[in-house]
Amino acid sequence: MKWEQIERDWKAYKPQMVKQWSKLTDEHLNSMGGKREKLATKIQEIYAVSKEEAEKQIKAFEEHAKQPQAAPVAAD
Q1: Where are the alpha helices (DSSP H) in the chain?
Q2: Most exposed: 4, 5, 12, 41, by fewest CB within 10 Å?
Q3: Alpha carbon 52 to chain centroid distance?
Q4: Residue 67: per-residue pLDDT
Q5: What does the domain layout of the chain look like in residue ranges?
Q6: Of 41, 47, 42, whose CA–CA distance to 27 is shortest?
Q7: Band of the pLDDT at 15, cuts 50, 70, 90?
Q8: Is this prediction's pTM over 0.85?
Q9: What's the gap between Cα 74 and its chain centre?
Q10: Check: CATH 1.10.1470.10 for 3-64?
Q11: Would the CA dihedral through 8, 35, 18, 2 be positive or negative?
């Protein structure tokens, strides 16, 4: 999966991100607006890892993230 897709559908991917990085809050994720650099910085701060490790984790997330399901449309 490409980061551009995650960035575009940021809100839909948030539950997967919280599952991956449980210390990230909705407030953290909302403030990032889909920006990879901001996510990497926050992972570094919260988990006390290097920039390289944060990028490695994001790359793994990017490779394994599942495309969110569209909300079902109610029948009339």
Answers
A1: 3-8, 10-20, 26-32, 36-47, 51-64
A2: 4
A3: 17
A4: 83
A5: 3-64
A6: 42
A7: very high
A8: no
A9: 28
A10: yes
A11: positive
